[in-house]
Amino acid sequence: MESITLYREANTWMAEHSDPKVQELFGTNTIPTAFGATCGLAFVVRQLIKLNPDVEFRFRGEFTVFD
Length: 67
Prior knowledge:
Radius of gyration: 11 Å
Low-confidence stretches: none
Structural class: alpha+beta
Oligomer: single chain
Strand content: 35-45%
């Protein structure tokens, strides 16, 4: 199963993809999301699940679900 690891960096949520196609397309497996770091984790995950329903989401860093 493909996975996306979410973490905050430089005032944005970053997404690290396990799918090799992302590396092929962008030259990196990590790309910024459209969500600023002030968006809470629960909101970000809800939005990304809509776009990636078959992906396992993982998390790195310190935050609460309700940030």
